[in-house]
From TrEMBL:
Keyword Isomerase recorded: yes
Species of the source: Flavobacterium stagni
Xref: InterPro entries: UDP_GlcNAc_Epimerase_2_dom, WecB-like
UniProt cross-references to PANTHER family, sorted A to Z: UDP-N-ACETYLGLUCOSAMINE 2-EPIMERASE
NCBIfam families hit by this protein: wecB
Protein name (record): UDP-N-acetylglucosamine 2-epimerase (Non-hydrolyzing)
Molecular-function GO terms, alphabetical: UDP-N-acetylglucosamine 2-epimerase activity
Amino acid sequence: MKITIVAGARPNFIKIAPIIRAIEQKQKAGAPLSYRLVHTGQHYDKNLSDTFFEELNIPKPNANLEVKSGSQSVQTANIMVAFEQELLENPTDLVLVVGDVNSTMACTIVAKKMNIKVTHVEAGIRSGDMTMPEEINRIVTDSITDYFFTTSTSATDNLIRFGANPEQVHFVGNVMIDTLYQNQHRFEQPTFWSDMGLEKGNYIILTLHRPANVDEEDSLVNLLEGIDQLAQGKKIIFPIHPRTKAILGERQLKTKNIVFIEPQGYLNFMYLVANSFTVITDSGGISEETTVLGIPCFTLRNNTERPETISVGTNHLVGTRVEKLVETYTTFLQNGMKKAGIPDLWDGKASERIIEILLQKEI
Ligand code: UDP
């Protein structure tokens, strides 16, 4: 079986690393498998792309479609045009997509229109929020995918309610957590650690990049100035996403505790998260990682497609208004962390299960 693996953006790179590793292990054991890795070029900054390939030992992509930035539609269209050509030149049996970025949806549509089977890893998660580009990507992708791999039983239920064939929906666990477990022993203290006076538990990590939080400059400034008040003597380390940085521009902020740093590579970032007091974020992936690491997480969104991070894990959904964050955070400071565990099958073996299951299918 020939598999074309698609990756376009930072969270994709983190998800494909263990899948490629599982394929290579099966190849060594003699399984009839080969793969071709296609980078769509959706993320192209070194610190959102190349660093992850190097740190996670992901092989150099066989093709880079170099689509770069653009509006939602321009980017999606450019990926489609380039990926169609890629598949014409390099026929394949199966296209494997991960996550919920534009590359995920665009490549799924192209493959299905060429009668090529598609498998979606991290299928079925739903926020119910149609203002999120990712939610549209998830729904479109899952409506035409052939084989689904899910991170939770609620994602499986969503797919079946949506009309997916239950025989093609497989609850296998979480590939992002595979990467976490495979690299935990390599998490690396950043070079600025001592100079900034960082110690285990004496700082907060902040990440923000969702349009609802960052696209409107005044509300972003208001949010950051509100978050700054929560520090209580702790530094707030903020690896600023290029998207957020572009919106703030040269704006001067009245913050005293937030330390702006460049987006971090995976090994430094995970070291920072694993040793932090709390994390404040609007990322979905980070709410999964903090759940596994047992770090309290405050998600600045009105909904989440990852409900198990709240019901089982350490995540608190606090909306996008700073007042609610302050209220929830203050209760947490008074009562301590809620009792939390690790969701079922988030055990580091999801990728192996995926490849095992694909090998049993007649593709
Ligand atoms: N991440 C990283 N460096 C950073 C910020 C995030 O390595 O400076 C990692 C993080 O550990 C997580 C992933 O990037 O695995 C999440 O990416 P992002 O927030 O862009 O995507 P989302 O989870 O919102 O889809």
